[in-house]
From TrEMBL:
Function: Catalyzes the attachment of glycine to tRNA(Gly).
Highest classification ranks of the organism: Bacteria, Pseudomonadati, Bacteroidota, Cytophagia, Cytophagales
Family: Belongs to the class-II aminoacyl-tRNA synthetase family.
EC category: ligase
Keyword Protein biosynthesis appears in the UniProt entry: yes
Keywords: Aminoacyl-tRNA synthetase, ATP-binding, Cytoplasm, Ligase, Nucleotide-binding, Protein biosynthesis
Sequence positions that bind substrate: 102, 190, 237-241, 351-355
GO CC annotation terms, alphabetical: cytoplasm; extracellular exosome; microvesicle
Protein name as catalogued: Glycine--tRNA ligase
Aminoacyl-transfer RNA synthetases class-II family profile domain mapped to chain residues: 135-393
Assembly notes: Homodimer.
Pfam families: HGTP_anticodon (PF03129), tRNA-synt_2b (PF00587)
Classification via InterPro entries: aa-tRNA-synt_IIb (IPR002314), aa-tRNA-synth_II (IPR006195), aa-tRNA-synth_II/BPL/LPL (IPR045864), Anticodon-bd (IPR004154), Anticodon-bd_dom_sf (IPR036621), Gly-tRNA_synthase/POLG2 (IPR027031), Gly_tRNA_ligase_bac (IPR022961), GlyRS-like_core (IPR033731)
Amino acid sequence: MMSAPATTLQDIIAHAKEYGFVFPSSEIYDGLQAVYDYGQNGVELKNNLKNVWWKAMTQLHDNIVGVDAAIFMHPLTWKASGHIDGFNDPMIDNKDSKKRYRADQLLEGKAELLTNAGKEDEANALLAKMGKLLGDEDLEAVRELIISENIVCPVSGTLNWTEVRQFNLMFSTKIGSVADDSSTIYLRPETAQGIFVNFLNVQKSGRMKVPFGISQIGKAFRNEIVARQFIFRMREFEQMEMQFFVRPGTEMEWYNKWKETRLSFHKAIGLPAESLKYHDHDKLAHYANAAVDIEYKFPFGFREIEGIHSRTDFDLSNHQALSKKKQQYFDPSIDPETNKPYGNYIPYVVETSVGADRLFLATFCNAFTKEMVGEGDKQKERTYMKLHPALAPVKAAVLPLVKKDGLAELGQEIANSLKSSFRTVYDDGGAIGKRYTRQDLIGTPFCIAVDYETKDDNCVTIRHRDTMEQERVPISELKERIGKEVAVERILEAI
């Protein structure tokens, strides 16, 4: 039997647009680079992913609550967090092509080529050297390293590089009616700081006891030098973050716990274990004492979809120093070593940070399925979206065999009876085989066929997306049967 061809990123992009998942933003004006809109099916899938993440955090854990902080924050927030002084990427231009690149990504690309060629030691040595030079902020040496490694511009094919410059990734704007320096504010580059500045508000109003967590889903903005690989890296994106506040000295225990918990989440939503792996950070961010990425195997290789970081007390301590407002927690529990209360301390933080758009892309890539069906001369390729039923944009489609003889009216009645329980659509356009295919292509797990026998036995035929098997089911059982399969509980139970 012939196997279906391997999936490429272009396959994913084309399918996402063709079937209403993701569109280029402002496409009638030729689009805006690295900005995308979610279509009618994409917004449902993304909302389902956000919903299951939110429930996995706030519903499964008694000590985690949520907030929704403003995008605009006081500018000193970003001074305290280090973003104003240190949120930079190394930028380099090719003088011949006039194209701009991130210097570190050029070197990482060369390391990936070396790895693919079986020269993993050379690749690791190159990455280690790059990490040291960037850590030392020796940008001229970074340029020399690019040239010595013969890394040419992909467009011009030349080594005619400019110097390397640091480029701050924050978008700035003005607030108020007078545009002067004092009115400059920033679009947030991450959602975490909205949690940190509300640490005491949540702790006191919710009477929270350490350890506890605060979750948030929200937009963030980064003026990426090179945004690429579809929605994997965008200038406007959405994060799902949870900051978990712990007693100093216990952070590694919680760090390891959250590593395992978050990997279980990704498996529970349907991402296979063989397509997931941990990647420990060699070079830690300024705020971390441990960091690991959960990576998914995209068509373009393993890339990060979530980071778990032990952030120490960096954020709360800096906010305390700059705001002159204490960010301490009084812990009345007894220290077994001193037999006294732990007392006042600034909590340490373990962070879990998921890119909602990257999780969407991983889920989409994993679900996109091409397979050969049939035998001999009748064999053909079948494409469908193998989404977890709880994540699918549409849970069930009601399809009357024909429009006449009362089947259309009966089908609409069935669809209306299910809509209050889960997203159901009614479709009577065209041959029923083509309607099955339409639903396969957006990932609908159950199609309900209404035929002439339905009028006599009050039963319908459910067609299962993945196997294409069909079974006869009483109309009275549809809501319970399908409702159980598409419920978010199926994912939460698996975490």
